[in-house]
Design a protein that fits this description.
- The chain has helices at 5-8, 14-22, 35-45, 78-89, 107-111, 124-137, 164-167, 171-175, 187-205, and strands at 25-29, 49-53, 94-98, 116-119, 140-147, 150-156, 214-219, 224-229.
- By secondary structure, the chain is α/β, with parallel strands linked by helices.
- The protein has an 8-stranded mixed β-sheet, with helices on both faces.
């Protein structure tokens, strides 16, 4: 257990917490700016099985913030490139690849195969789909969103009973929006993705106060942050 010794020595984690991580499974929906740090930290922490779900290919504009990829990956599917990098990080982790992305047709089958879902996508339609299926299957899921200098994280499916529609009620209008294409400072998804990964690990191990039913907001330009009850 030398690999995870610095984590195991934490009183709140210990051997039992590490065992829970090794026996857990997490689906990451989206392997872009948020998904890259989430996948990296969950792999490094010893999560036993990780699902990689994304239908996009690596483009030049991704490299400013999507730290799993290099110039050699341009034009290749993100799932394949992410898999290569992550397998090189940990031979102890099992990876599943879902290169068709999450759709209304496959969401129930895919999500039901994991203990926890981490949203790292860039559109509301997929998030509403995740919320629907996670409520049907009794799964927790972690919401993450970024834009310009701002980031947002929340946890749904916990004891609070909070739903994504409680936070974003106008489903029809928001679902019709195209995928986000606004500017973003490179480190913003790194910070927000790290917080999502932390919430995932806390949820799996069962420690600390998670963002269940609460929205964490941060502005990296001003370094102001706050938590809002949903």
């Amino acid at each position: 257990m030398e690999r995870y010794s610095r984590q195991i020595m934490l009183e709140d984690v210990g051997d039992e917490g590490q065992r829970r991580l090794s026996e857990s499974s997490v689906l990451i929906v989206g392997l872009g700016g948020l998904g890259a740090p989430v996948a990296s930290y969950l792999t490094g922490a010893g999560v036993g099985r990780i699902g990689l779900c994304d239908k996009d290919i690596v483009s030049l504009s991704n490299l400013q913030r999507q730290i799993l990829y290099t110039e050699a990956d341009l034009g290749q599917p993100k799932c394949e490139c992410a898999l290569r990098r992550l397998e090189a990080m940990s031979s102890q982790t099992a990876f599943d690849v879902h290169p068709d992305g999450l759709t209304a047709e496959n969401a129930a089958d895919i999500i039901s195969g994991y203990d926890l879902v981490v949203d790292c996508c860039d559109n509301f339609a997929t998030r509403y789909l995740i919320d629907d299926v996670c409520r049907e299957t009794g799964r927790h899921w972690i919401f993450g969103s970024i834009g310009e200098f701002n980031g947002y994280v929340a946890v749904f499916g916990g004891r609070s009973g909070a739903k994504f529609t409680d936070l974003f009620a106008d489903r029809e209008t928001l679902s019709a929006r195209p995928a986000a294409a606004a500017g973003v400072l490179g480190p913003v998804p790194g910070v927000v993705g790290a917080i999502e990964a932390s919430e995932a690990l806390k949820t799996i191990v069962g420690i600390g106060d998670t963002l269940d039913g609460r929205l964490f907001c941060i502005n990296l330009l001003t370094l102001e942050s706050n938590i809002i009850n949903i």
